[in-house]
Amino acid sequence: MKIFQGIDLIRIKRVKDIYLKFKNKFLQKIFTINEIKKIEKNKKNIDLRIAGKYASKEAAAKAIGFGISHGIKFKDFEILNNVNGKPEITLKGEAQSRIKKILSSSVSISHDGEYLISIVTFISNE
User: Fold this and answer.
1) 100 or 53, which is more confident?
2) Strand 115-124 and strand 102-112: pairing?
3) Which of 52, 70, 93, 102 fits as disulfide partner to 109, beta carbons 3.0 to 4.6 Å?
4) What is the dihedral angle through the alpha carbons of 39, 42, 45, 51, rounded to the nearest 10 degrees?
5) Whole-angstrom Cα distance, residue 62 to residue 24?
6) Phi, psi (5° rounding) for residue 99?
7) With b meaning 16 or more CB within 10 Å and e meaning fewer, what string describes 9-31?
8) DSSP one-letter code for 119
9) DSSP secondary-structure letter at 124?
10) DSSP of 68-116, one letter per residue?
11) What values do phi and psi take at 44, rounded to 5?
């Protein structure tokens, strides 16, 4: 068994400013169609939801060990909330080929004031 873990800390305002400047262009570069639908469905706290998903993608890429590089893209990680509101991650593309036989995964997002943090863990049977 192997454990992969990554963490990312960001200023919420930084992500909010990028979103306000580039709007849909930013969303389409970073997020999958399913994620964009969920983000646009409810405009309340949109900056927190965008920042949370963004930080989670960065944390997931760090867990794999390469960050967003070496063929891994933001859209290789899809983060959607389950019926209880808990974020869940699905790997696609190059990210999926880097971690095989995933037994479980976990995404945790927290924010306080102007900062947001996300921790992503994968447990693999490699």
Assistant:
1) 53
2) antiparallel
3) 52
4) 0
5) 25
6) -120, 110
7) ebebeebbebbeeeeeebbeebb
8) E
9) E
10) S-TT--GGGEEEEE-TTS-EEEEE-HHHHHHS-SEEEEEEEEEEETTEE
11) -65, 130
Query: Taking the alpha carbons of 60, 47, 49, 41 in that order, is the dihedral positive or negative?
Result: negative
Phi-psi region of 113 (alpha: psi -120 to 50; beta: other; left: phi over 0): left
Which residue from 30, 68, 76 is spatially nearest to 49, judged by alpha carbons? 30
Instruction: State the Cα–Cα distance between residues 32 and 79, nearest whole angstrom.
Output: 9
Q: Any bridge partners for residue 108, and if so which?
A: 119
Tokens of 68: 């967003």
Read off φ and ψ for residue 104, nearest 5 degrees: -160, 160
For the record, the structure tokens of 111 come out as 């924010």
Instruction: Copy the structure tokens of residue 104.
Output: 């479980």
pLDDT in tens, 57-115: 999 999 998 778 788 899 999 999 999 999 999 999 888 888 878 899 999 999 999 99
